[in-house]
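user: can you give me the structure for this one chain? C-alpha cells are fine.
assistant: on it. calling the predictor now.
[tool input]
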Amino acid sequence: MERVGRQGVRSTTAALAHLPRFALLAFVLLAFVLLAAGCARAVEGTAQPADSTASSPVPARPSSARPVPSAVVAAPRQADAVPPCSVATQQQVLDAFGALAGVPTSTGRGGSGCVWPLASGPGDGFLVGYGRSYAEVVGEHPAATGAFAADSDGNSTWLWCERADTHVYCGAAVAIGAERTFVTGLVRTQGPAVSRSSVLGELEALTVPLLRTLPAG
C-alpha cells in the first residue's frame, strides 16, 4: 500500500479478562475492527492510541470536522462472494504471522468476519471480513491521532492503530464498492519488537494479496 496522508484515529474497544482466551480475542477484534467498519456495536471502555502513554488523553473530535474524503475504487471487488474464513489460506496466515493457536472461526453479524488466533501471545490474532462504506469507516476514525489514507491497487484504504491494555491493534479498510469495504485487522502483544509501525507493516503485507483474490465487482 502507498501512504498518501496522515489522519486521526478514534474508536472504542475493551479487553474482558473473565472471558476465555479465544472468546476474548474474537470479542476485542470484532469491537475494534468491525466496529470501525460499521458491523458491530461498541463495547465499554476506551482504548489509547498506539505508541502513546497511558496518561495521554485522546483528542476529542473537533466541532468543525474535516469532510470525509471520497473513496476511489479503481478495481471494484465483490463483498461477501467469498466467505471470510475462505479469503486467506492457512499457509498464507502462517507465512505472514507465524504459528496458529487454533482454527479460524466465523464471527460477527451474519458471519461478516473471521478470526485466526495466533500463537505469538495470549489474545493475538488476525481478522478478515467485510464492512460498510469507506466514509463510515473514516467517520469512526476521524483526524485525531494518526489514522491515515493509503492506496491498495488503486482503491482507497484507511489504516489505523490503537493500544489497549497489553496489545497493539491495527486495522485496514479497503473500499471495494460504493457501500462496502474489505476489512483486515491484526492484534499483537506489546513488546520490544512490536510497535504500531511493525504491526501495520505485517497487516499491509497480507491485505493487498488477499484483496486480489476477491472476485471483480
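assistant: here you go. The helical segments are 21-36, 84-87, 90-97, 134-140, 196-213. Strands lie at 2-3, 48-49, 105-107, 113-117, 125-131, 148-152, 155-164, 167-175, 181-189.
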